[in-house]
Specification:
hydrolase, Immunoglobulin-like, 31% helix, alpha/beta, nine-stranded parallel sheet
């Protein structure tokens, strides 16, 4: 990939006649589309009969694109195995939690762990890599499409066998598994690994250790499949490899991207869920640090399927989305899809061109994105995103714990996005970092909704604190062991000792009348909570009269090295809760001497970037209400070369400004 910004779309040339394809390429040139993603569902076109593989059509199409100045991201077509693979072979199919065997059609209908699937996927991938790897214009590869988007853990016989092998590797002996999982409860005790079931149909709930571990097993297996595909492609191509993922899918993204070259995601957040869009950018920037990420799919207008549709973007919003992405570290901003599907289950989905070849309601927005891309490209490619001083830890393994133990239907993505929105609104530049990411350079660390906190993570966080940083732990953090069991030494395990507290009670505060008082604000307390008796810590927030635990602490702080460990035992709720959280964030940002921040108004963001000898702020209004920010010093607008004075800068509806200091 070169020094440029990519503006692209998913394209399915196998579905259209040649004259339509020529028309599409001409339209792409007019709209400024400089990359097309192809091939992801085309297995039956490439191998209509088992063993008869012909890729000449795709070789021709990539040639046409290249001649038109359009690059290609080539995909492996493994989410949609053809009818010859599935017909008469239920043993190869995905089996859901209710033990229903999937039939042919839709996508993700095969078990990706089945040895015959792996064999056939490897063969088609090798053919594609060999035929297409050397072609000019192929700038990247995408494996499959949205792993585990429609399916979660497979319950087929193949997976059962591999589950037992995985358990044996993890525990060594069945005695160690029994001890770790506490299987004497409800007579769950096993005498050999072959007796350990999958978490399929049961009269009530499965053992938490079984359910969580099966998710982790499934996440590891799909990542191994990605590794396998990537290794085949690398034999024939130097172009970088990715997968288009999401926090909504049943994958461990940190593990998935470990052996891939760059990270990419798909997003269909609606215009009124700006935090839901931005959190992905701040997270995906950190899966492959130092390497730009891609938005591989977003709608030019609205998402839809046969059964549902989302609100269309207002005019101007798509440009704001794209500029924010490029400014926050995206190299590519791509649509699903170029030409509207004329058949299948996604006919109503928003596209750039209609099935009858005319511009859609989103077309002018795409032209606006292209105009903005051309204007900001020189500035973006000559700078890098600035690492934030504030980090919010994200964990897909924590997502697995919360799927096993969701309390009252808690949703990990929703909890994280709401917490992230508080950081966003505070004007702090922030990174969302995977659980295993290095924490060097951070001054303020937030660790919410992480039921199990590993020794490795704790060690990194303590080093941050010893350097003078602040570590804010909770809510819903630390109450479970690695095996998804309850600690028996203290309520929050090692965290109690490190934070200098005794956790007296953990219980659900919703509906208990509990009100917390901290930083001059009183707010209702919610979610499963912990209350503390400080030992060598100070109470910063206490539970007021009323409720079940008046006078006990729900926020504590303790000096450690040059910094502080802060426990946040409960989630403040409602508008008062948002105010309380905001004051907590601002207070500890000041104590940790966080300097990469601004007074930007809510709904507008500042994305700071750095070049060899200069700094750039990209300011984008995301909520359509306009906003402002105070510039710390005078700068220039690199697109117009006009001077921009220090002081208050007003930003209009969905407008963006680039300021070079």
């Amino acid at each position: 990939m070169g020094k440029k910004l990519y503006h692209g779309a998913a394209w399915y040339p196998e579905l259209w006649e040649e004259n339509v394809l020529k028309q599409d390429i001409a339209f792409m040139q007019q709209a400024g589309i400089n990359v097309a993603r192809i091939g992801e569902f085309a297995w039956s076109n490439m191998e209509p009969h088992e063993g008869q593989i012909d890729l000449s059509f795709f070789v021709k199409i990539i040639g046409w694109l290249h001649e038109a100045g359009i690059d290609t991201v080539m995909c492996t077509p493994t989410p949609t195995p053809p009818i010859w693979f599935t017909h008469g072979h239920p043993e190869r199919m995905y089996v859901n939690e209710q033990l229903q065997v999937m039939g042919h059609g839709s996508r993700q209908h095969a078990c990706t762990n089945h040895p015959y699937f792996r064999e056939k996927a490897a063969i088609i991938t090798e053919h594609i890599a060999r035929a297409i790897g050397p072609l000019p214009g192929v700038i990247g590869w995408q494996l499959d499409n949205e792993f585990k988007a429609h399916v979660a853990e497979c319950m087929c016989d193949t997976c059962l066998t591999q589950w037992h092998e995985w358990l044996q590797e993890r525990y060594g002996t069945i005695e160690q598994l029994n001890d770790a999982w506490g299987t004497q409860i409800w007579s769950e005790y096993y005498h050999c690994f072959e007796q350990v079931p999958q978490p399929g149909p049961a009269p009530f709930l499965h053992n938490s250790s079984l359910k969580t571990n099966y998710q982790l097993f499934s996440m590891e297996k799909i990542a191994q499949f990605a590794d396998e595909q990537a290794n085949i492609i690398r034999k024939y191509s130097d172009a970088p490899i990715t997968h288009n993922s999401s926090v909504a899918f049943s994958v461990d993204n940190e593990r998935l991207f470990r052996n891939l070259d760059f990270a990419s995601f798909d997003t269909y957040a609606t215009f009124d869920n700006v935090p839901g869009y931005l959190i992905n950018n701040d997270l995906w920037r950190n899966f492959k640090r130092g390497r730009d990420y891609w938005i591989m799919e977003t709608s030019p207008s609205y998402a839809a399927s046969l059964e549902s549709y989302a609100k269309p973007h207002p005019n101007g919003y798509l440009k704001a989305e794209a500029v924010a992405a490029y400014a926050l570290g995206a190299e590519g901003f791509c649509y699903w899809l170029w030409r509207q599907q004329r058949a299948g289950c996604e006919q109503p989905h928003g596209s750039v061109i209609s099935a009858w070849g005319k511009p859609t309601v989103g077309y002018n927005s795409v032209l606006e994105v292209e105009q903005a891309r051309l204007a900001i490209e020189p500035t973006i490619v000559s700078t890098r995103p600035v690492q934030a001083e504030v980090a919010l830890t994200y964990s897909d393994r924590a997502k697995a714990f919360l799927r096993t133990e969701p309390h009252q239907k808690l949703n990990h993505r929703g909890l994280m996005t709401d917490f992230y929105a508080q950081l966003l609104d505070s004007g702090l530049h922030r990174d969302v970092v995977p659980e295993g990411a290095p924490l060097d350079g951070y001054k303020l660390l937030f660790t919410p909704f992480l039921p199990y906190v590993s020794a490795e993570y704790t060690e990194q966080a303590l080093q941050l604190v010893e350097r003078g940083g602040v570590w804010v732990i909770g809510p819903l953090t630390g109450g479970r062991t690695v095996e998804h069991t309850v600690h028996t030494d203290s309520a929050l395990g090692a965290l109690d000792r490190l934070a200098g507290v005794e956790t007296l009670y953990t219980f659900p505060m919703d509906g208990s009348g509990s009100v917390g008082s901290a930083f001059g604000v009183d707010a209702p307390l919610s979610l499963w909570s912990a209350v503390f008796a400080p030992q060598d810590a100070s109470a910063v927030g206490v539970v007021a009269e009323g409720g079940l635990t008046p006078g006990l602490a729900f926020i504590t702080e303790k000096q450690h090295g040059k910094g502080k460990i802060v426990m946040l035992g409960s989630m403040p709720a409602g508008e008062e809760g948002q105010l309380l959280l905001n004051r907590l964030i601002v207070r500890y940002a000041e104590e940790a001497d966080v300097t990469i921040r601004s007074d930007v108004t809510k709904g507008t963001i500042v994305a700071p970037r750095r070049g060899d000898d200069h700094e750039v702020w990209v300011v984008v209004n995301m909520d359509g209400a306009g906003g402002s920010v105070t510039l710390p010093r005078a700068g220039i607008d690199p697109t117009t070369q006009e001077p921009v004075p220090a002081g208050k800068l007003e930003i209009g509806r969905y407008e963006h400004k680039v300021i070079r200091f």
